[in-house]
Amino acid sequence: MEPPIYYSRSEFIETDTGNKVSRRATIAGPQNIILGGKTIISSGAIIRGDLRRSGPGHAVVISLGRYCLVGEGCVMRPPYKTYRGAFNYYPMKVGDHVHIGAGSVVEAATIGNHVEIGKNCVIGKFTIIKDCVKVADNTIIPPNTVIPALSLFAGSPGRFVEDLPESTQDMVEVHTKQHYSRFQPLDREH
Amino acid sequence: MGPNVLYHCPCLSTSSVPPPPHQISSSYSFHPLHELFFCEECDAVRCNRCVSVEVSGYYCPNCLFEVPSASVRAEKNRCARNCFMCPNCRNTLSVVPSDPPDAGDGRLLAPISTVGEPPFFLYCNHCRWDSSEVGITFEKPTGLAAQLQKLEDSAPDSLEFDRLKEHFEPIIRASSLSSSSTVPSTSHSRHHSNPITAAASAALARDIPGVGKYTPLTRSGRSSGKDRSANKDEMPEYKSRLDITKASAYGSGGGDVDVDFMRRLETVSEVASLDQRWTYSWSTSLETRDLKPLRIPLHSKHSKRCPACAHILIKPEQKAQSVRYKIKLVAANYLPAITVALPHQIEMLGHISAEATKRGTKSTAEDDRDTRGGLQAGKTYPFHMALTNPLYDPIQVRLSVQRMHVAPSGEGEKARRPPFAISIPTTPFSVAPFAEAWEYEDDEDMFALDDDELEARLSGREKEPKAKSKTVGVLEKRANVTVVGGEVALGKEARGEIKFNMLVAYTYRSDDPTPSEGHDISPSKKAVPETKTFAFYTVVDLGAIIPKDEDSRLEAYNV
Ligand SMILES: [Zn+2]
Ligand SMILES: [Zn+2]
Ligand SMILES: [Zn+2]
Ligand SMILES: [Zn+2]
């Protein structure tokens, strides 16, 4: 019994698999980005698929699973490091049912399934987030952090706060699916 | 947070009736449905407060290594590999080689496990603390905990702890022998009575007169004299390795060392905060520069049991990072899920979202929930409750509001009736069974505004109110959800939160025949389906009434 979240039909492009991507989002290097389906990229989001590993051919830089949400003004940027003297970008993989709140910057290496990241967070380079994790609003996760499954992290630097309930997976799944169905075009444009 | 429904676990109350919602104890007795368990054996709801918890496995939260329980104690419950916490900010430390590579662009790159030159040190890429500042460096970048082992083992706190263990071990051994033979197995055996607590309570009983009779050891009868003689736990006096009066040599003992330090102090950050020193088991230096890296404490996975019958309710899979369970008896699989909403609020939020979309501005609907869709004293509002059936059989539900009185706010004032009245349907209604096909894939389950209405609202021309439809009663049935309507009438002087306790009783077909009637049941006979009823309490929170001075702001919105 949640209210719909309306968007203007002219702003969003809907793909065959139900992804909804705002025309006001910056999708750099779209050929290197994979969206799993029913994933929403909000307005003002920046996804840097152009920052790819050096070398020939094309490579997946950022992949997102099904029922994800990249909030308004989020920045998704692949992590980078200098290894044996060579600077390189590394791919970022995001699972299914992952919501990223507005204004967050993400440079993680992997994010599991059923993960909720709050608003205005910074997820540092090469962070590994396991399944069923929640990161509270305004959390700063320093580079290389590992966040174990079923835990809540908050603060600056982000620290473990508590274990999440056993039914987190079901809860997040319902929430992300509901969010997708609440996200509806407003038909009457003038 | 909008309106919500919480479920009662009866573990804290002596009666089956929960406390009224305005009592403080209410918040301890009610929980979100998804945090509750269900014991089939006892046919009862259980919560995290009452289940008994057992550790089913240990792992390091950073390297995710699963530590066998046999080595947990020897490793002092902390990761014995490469995982350290920054003593300054509690971030995880990285191992870096000497001379971190300079990016040359003025940015400080946090070097990450590059193969470099020894010595290696621990570096915090959040606050830039580094272990070479406290004289800790490593020859190789692996097995750091082992390399630090010598330092750790010779620390005064671990030496003292070893001595304490040596002192108590024979006593614990002796008391475990005596307690297993002399303590009768009363109901107290469930209360984690192990040799250590037995020894501790015996010591307490001896030192503090009168305490003894509350301990499980002396529970039977009051013959304290006799029981005391039964305690074979005469404890020899412990002599500490270090004289506590000389502890100031290690800092924070308040002696000359600290005074000297204070004299030389230039900035506050030179003093380690209490938070930074708190986890040390020994008196430590006051100085930030003396803080040592901390091995990361292990985490554990838990099994949960019913406190009454000891049946397992939660059993996680062995693998530390698996989020699956071998056994998971959660209340959400047994009890109907109830959500509550105020239609006027939902409509308002939808309207705000639509308006924002039209204007091309960012929607701030979530933040406006409290004021624009708020409740005003003296008005009557309909509310909707949606009940979702998790069972594969239909259920019959009956709702009733628990009568209550508001506690007197002062001396001599009598308990009053709450300043609002709730009407909900009192006749039973059905909720269809759950079926996989009704999963949320194509859920269009929302209160959308119809276009004309939207148009009218946006242009400020409100239509004539529609013919009043039924507010109290069953409003809608779809899939395994039944929506019922209720109404809340707020008194003129109503203030505060609108909360009420609601009893939910549901009847379902039970698969197993009742054993007591088990004479001559042949399967060929047409079985009359057994029905069972389960009842539980909820607290329904409809939100807060807007304080009077905010009313004027609302008029602009035509609520
Ligand atoms: Zn309980
Ligand atoms: Zn570790
Ligand atoms: Zn630090
Ligand atoms: Zn039980």
From TrEMBL, chain A:
- Name the UniProt key words of this record, in alphabetical order: Cytoplasm, Cytoskeleton
- Record GO cellular component, one term: dynactin complex
Task: Name where it mostly resides.
Answer: cytoplasm
Instruction: Please indicate which superkingdom the organism of origin belongs to.
Output: Eukaryota
Tell me the protein family, please: Belongs to the dynactin subunits 5/6 family. Dynactin subunit 5 subfamily.
Q: Which PANTHER family match?
A: DYNACTIN SUBUNIT 5
- In Swiss-Prot or TrEMBL terms, this protein is called Dynactin subunit 5
Q: Where in the cell is it found?
A: Cytoplasm, Cytoskeleton
From TrEMBL, chain B:
User: Which PANTHER family does the UniProt record give?
Assistant: DYNACTIN P62 SUBUNIT, DYNACTIN SUBUNIT 4
Q: Any idea what this protein is called?
A: Dynactin subunit 4
Similarity section: Belongs to the dynactin subunit 4 family.
Q: Give start-end positions of Low complexity composition bias.
A: 175-187
Compartment(s) where it occurs, according to its Swiss-Prot or TrEMBL record = Cytoplasm, Cytoskeleton, Microtubule organizing center, Centrosome; Cytoplasm, Cytoskeleton, Stress fiber; Cytoplasm, Myofibril
**Quaternary state and interactors:** Subunit of dynactin, a multiprotein complex part of a tripartite complex with dynein and a adapter, such as BICDL1, BICD2 or HOOK3. The dynactin complex is built around ACTR1A/ACTB filament and consists of an actin-related filament composed of a shoulder domain, a pointed end and a barbed end. Its length is defined by its flexible shoulder domain. The soulder is composed of 2 DCTN1 subunits, 4 DCTN2 and 2 DCTN3. The 4 DCNT2 (via N-terminus) bind the ACTR1A filament and act as molecular rulers to determine the length. The pointed end is important for binding dynein-dynactin cargo adapters.
Q: Which InterPro entries match?
A: DCTN4 (IPR008603)
User: According to the lineage, what is the superkingdom?
Assistant: Eukaryota
